[in-house]
Amino acid sequence: xxxxxxxxxxxxxxxxxxxxxxxxxxxxxxxxxxxxxxxxxxxxxxxxxxxxxxxxxxxxxxxxxxxxxxxxxxxxxxxxxxxxxxxxxxxxxxxxxxxxxxxxxxxxxxxxxxxxxxxxxxxxxxxxxxxxxxxxxxxxxxxxxxxxxxxxxxxxxxxxxxxxxxxxxxxxxxxxxxxxxxxxxxxxxxxxxxxxxxxxxxxxxxxxxxxxxxxxxxxxxxxxxxxxxxxxxxxxxxxxxxxxxxxxxxxxxxxxxxxxxxxxxxxxxxxxxxxxxxxxxxxxxxxxxxxxxxxxxxxxxxxxxxxxxxxxxxxxxxxxxxxxxxxxxxxxxxxxxxxxxxxxxxxxxxxxxxxxxxxxxxxxxxxxxxxxxxxxxxxxxxxxx
DNA sequence: TGGGGTTAT
DNA sequence: ATAACCC
Length: 385
What we know:
Elements: E1 4-7, E2 27-33, E3 42-46, H1 50-58, E4 67-71, E5 74-78, H2 80-84, E6 91-92, H3 93-99, E7 104-107, H4 112-126, E8 132-135, E9 139-143, H5 145-158, E10 164-170, H6 177-185, H7 191-196, H8 199-206, H9 208-218, E11 234-243, H10 246-267, E12 270-280, E13 290-295, H11 298-303, H12 309-326, E14 335-346, H13 356-359, E15 360-362, E16 375-377
Parallel strand pairs: 4-7
Antiparallel strand pairs: 1-3, 2-10, 3-9, 4-5, 5-6, 8-9, 11-14, 12-13, 12-14, 15-16
Helix pairs in contact: 8-9, 10-12
This protein binds a DNA duplex (9 and 7 nucleotides) through strand 6, helix 6, strand 11 and strand 13.
């Protein structure tokens, strides 16, 4: 962990508005009175060059060398040695090699180990408080309000004295690309511009929801709760590559699906929706992706737990239907990305307590001669009765 | 610009 | 299904 910031967000105490040159982020110290009912204690844990750190743990020989993590022709992140030598995030491999010929590159297209390590970090933080919100693979927000309040009570009963907690308000959200453009069109380019801009006009321009939120943010006020992330809402695997035939698409879909099935198997829950996403080759149009989704047929869902090859063929069939729904395979086409996503994840046991279904679970291991479903009694707890 | 994720509409 | 946002 490179850095942990203790901040008190959501407080309107203290003078605000100091700006860092060159952009929206700012920091400002402030003192929060102990026991102040409106203040919260939120720790933002932001891991720097996370993928590179995972790689250095996997292979300690990489430590001390300039290291970059490569995805396709991009260096998506790099360690500090590489940064010192001029390598930047999302730099072209060519440019990076030119800047730093000794740069060691490892392929980071398979996110499995990064994902696993990411959840280990989140789980560690959850030991302090269950209120942990993930942001990407390398950031977590932990709401420590309750823990800190308990400790303060402890301290005060041990040795009564005037206690204060100090922290700072920091930039949490970076106003996004589209919104930045719209704000610029209104002549808003700094935090102070946003603070002093007419609320009414801003609401008309951006809609009441976005307008009120970003204007509050401009004063350092962020009341949004830390929402525990829990297990993921979706699993997806994607690969950017050139694809101009149905056969290529099918092969890639099989590859992506095989990985996804492994992941879903480990998770234990079952996806009820499947989605196929494509990116078409087109000179510009910065964000062009199209998708088609459909429910996963229930007979496939049932088989999802254990057998993998049983489900491959019918799932690929479903995905190829989605594919042909988007792409006219009778005409020439050129795709640059395929992605498969499982979502609408449901726990195995969705039956309500107190109903018959709650005590019966579909059996995968028992063969029923009639070919219909068979059931096994679940383990039950005394408090259920 | 990769290979992921989320929520709102 | 898409659009916007985050890393």
